What we know:
The chain is mainly beta. It folds into 2 domains: 36-177, Jelly Rolls (Sandwich), CATH 2.60.120.1390; 185-392, Jelly Rolls. The protein contains 6 helices and 23 strands. The chain has helices at 2-22, 26-29, 112-115, 270-273, 358-361, 369-382; strands at 37-43, 55-58, 63-69, 73-83, 94-100, 108-111, 126-127, 131-134, 140-143, 147-149, 153-159, 165-177, 186-195, 222-228, 231-242, 253-257, 265-266, 285-286, 290-294, 303-310, 316-318, 321-326, 337-346. Strands 3, 5, 6, 11, 13, 15, 18, 19, 20, 21 and 23 form an 11-stranded mixed beta sheet that branches. A hairpin with a 5-residue loop joins strand 8 and strand 9 (140-143). Residues 2-20 have low confidence and may be disordered.
Amino acid sequence: MKFKMYFLQVLLLFSANTMAQTFNNDLSALSLIQQGIKTKRVSSYDSSGDNHDNLQNIKSGEKRIIFDVKGTGMINHIWITMGPEPNVLSRNDVIIKMYWDGNDRPSVESPIGPFFGQGWNESYLFTSAVLAATPTNGNGLVSYFAMPFSKGARIEIENQSGKDIRSLYFYVDYVEMKSLPSNAGRFHACYNTELTGPADSVENEHWMFGPGIPNKTGKDNYVIADIKGKGHFVGVNYYVHSPTPYWYGEGDDMIFIDGDEHPSLIGTGTEDYFNTSWGAPKVPYSTPYFGYPKVNDDIGFLGKTHIYRFNIVDPIYFDKSMKFTIEHGSMNVLTLDLASVAYWYQDKAVAVPEIPDAAARKPMPMIGPAEIHKWRNEWRKNKGNDPKLWGN
């Protein structure tokens, strides 16, 4: 009898483990019937029954709340598009903010373009598992990040563009729930930008002008995220504008966890963290978790590159803090116009740092053959103005 009972317990345990293993991915979990959950939507539909399904004429300097829900739930889908087109209305100067659980400071604050994977004020196709910019030409902005809340949620759009937003269309799909799991984190995202420069004014990449200055502490690295609290980091959109044809991607990623003095995680080069190799690709490509949706197709590496990596199956966990940095060039020796949006979850909703104002966010102008020709002319004059100087 004891043997039969023991056998039954083992069988039940085996069945439970088998069931847990069977339903531990998104597609199998999709088959599970949920209790106490109701799907809801807030959108820009025309409540009169007519077809003017958008918010209209959001003035420059104006803020509009597009989502304000009390109670417990989780946003699981956002779609936004707006007019006029990006060449008229800068997506770099329309700000999206998200507030959780009644907080008066946002846990998400970013220009709307960079948040959804559209760098600078450009529009192009971008596809990943959690964020996308869809046809036509990247104007449909999509998020599938899970965004839980227990005491309410608010999403606000702020127009800093100097022009009117003529029309704003949106869906915010969410579920109402009686309660959240006790370990449900809060979604956070923050934008940063910096015009970097070498410490001694010499862009000494690849030891071109002599020995380099070793970088062990990450002191002058570009900062992607500086987080206080407990949680896990889940990804970054990284935007690089290079004024030189020289390769900019030797900069290592250096990640400091829980106050470590030296990098807890350190990489071997920018392209390596983003899962590529031997420089940036010359054609765009996208996978669910990493890719290059925009590449510089000018001379060498001159121009703009958008790279992303989402740590969906490999989050970076921290208990007290995490500082994610990356070198600009090997040992921080290059002038680069950098911007990024970092995404993470924390055990409670906290305020993210305020983002730079519109003037500080303004992308640097493009450099092309005309500028290079002018620089060559100045070099020739500096060398005595010999008309046959070749440049070597």
